[in-house]
Amino acid sequence: MTQRGGWTIETSQTVFENAWMTVTTHLGKRPDGAPGTYAVMSPKSYAALILPVFADGSIMLVGQPRFALDNYSWEIPEGGSPKTDPPLEGAIRELREETGLSAGHWQEILQAEVSNSLTDEQAFGYLAWDLTQGDQALEGAEDIALKQIHFREALELVMSGELRDLPTIAMLLKAHYMAQSGLIDTDLARAMLEQGG
Predict the structure, then answer these.
(1) Mean pLDDT, rounded, for 61-67
(2) What's the mean pLDDT in 44-58?
(3) Do 18 and 61 meet the contact criterion of CB atoms below 8 Å apart?
(4) How far apart, in whole angstroms, are the C-alpha atoms of residue 38 and residue 7?
């Protein structure tokens, strides 16, 4: 028996596995002592989150249809980075694949637990700037559009509820705080905080 999250785990069993995730059920005793079952989804990758910022303070958003909720979502570039690779390598790859952009400078600004009651997925978020445009390299399952808007406009879309992707919201709010607090490149922060023309 082992202890995990206040539970006493007696047995664990993988009930589903594919190329992207494993689902494991854990049988044992809940914190109140009653018998219980807890299921955890474990992705085989980290979540790589990228906020690409241009010299004028604008950012690149990607738009795509999302299967789980059957909706269309505008969000920052994000995707899976194999746990065998450093998270930054995955972020560099995802930015290039989804947007065609490459960045001369990178700064980690966020580490987060995505939905810690359901999954052990961890996210690593990066600010990317000094951008150079190339060609997208989309995977067959991806149908991605690009939209460049000013950072402050993106913040307004968060506050109005038009941007709903939680990693996007977290990255924009963290970057805003860091820009205001002098924790990122000074020129970049100024461009982000001062609405462009």
Answers:
(1) 94
(2) 97
(3) no
(4) 9
Residue indicated by tokens 């460049």: 148
List the one residue out of 179, 177, 149 whose CA is nearest residue 163. Answer: 149
Q: What are the φ/ψ torsions at residue 64 (nearest 5 degrees)?
A: -160, 150
Task: Show the DSSP H helices in 100-185 as ranges.
Answer: 151-160, 166-180
The pair of structure tokens assigned to 136 is: 């997208």
Across the strands, what pairs with 42?
A: 22
134's tokens? 């190339």
3-state helix, strand, coil in the chain (%, to 5): 25, 45, 30
Residue 197 has pLDDT above 50, yes or no: no
The residue-averaged pLDDT of 94-111 equals 97
Q: What is the pLDDT of residue 196?
A: 52
Q: What is the overall mean pLDDT for the chain?
A: 95
In the three-class reduction of DSSP (H, G, I as helix; E, B as strand; rest coil), residue 197 is classed as coil
- Which alpha helices (H) appear in 23-138, and where do they start and end? 87-99
